[in-house]
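Readers outside the structure-tokenisation community will struggle with the description of the input data as it stands. Showing the layout once, in full, would remove most of the difficulty. For illustration, here is how one protein appears when written out as sequence plus structure tokens:
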Amino acid sequence: MSKKASLDHKQLRAIGHKLKPVVTVAGNGLSDTVLQEVLRALGDHELIKVKIAVGDRDTRRAVTEALCTQTGATLVQSIGNVVLLLKRAKQPDPRLSNLMRVLD
């Protein structure tokens, strides 16, 4: 990994540290409603935290992989039952984007 890429990753984790989870995946798993909410949140904010409150570590990992695959998001960080996801918007809204608000 290049120095620039790791620096970007470090910055994303620093921004994500201040965020609160906006979606929780619980007992029903990745329902259509949950996926739609994650997609909406990613479209608005680009960088979001999702709480994955299902089963053990392997189950959480499988749900995280499915979530990334189905939304096209990139996993930035996973700590316990909280994951930090990134999906850059083509036309980010400066008032909502967690990435742009930090730059102001």
Summary: The longest helix spans residues 3-17.
